Amino acid sequence: MPLSPQLEGHAAGFRENRLIADQLCDPLGSAQFVWRPAPDRWSVGDCLVHLNVTAASYRDAIEAAIARGRANGLVGSGPFTPNWLSRWLLRAVEPGNGRRFTAPKPFRPPVGAPPAAVVVRAVFRDTGERWQRDLRLADGLDLARLTVPSPVSRLLRLDLGGLFAVQVAHERRHLEQARRVTLDPGFPT
Question: Exposure string (b/e) for 80-106, b if CB count within 10 Å is 16 or more?
Answer without folding.
Answer: bebbebbbebbeebeeeeeeeeeeeee
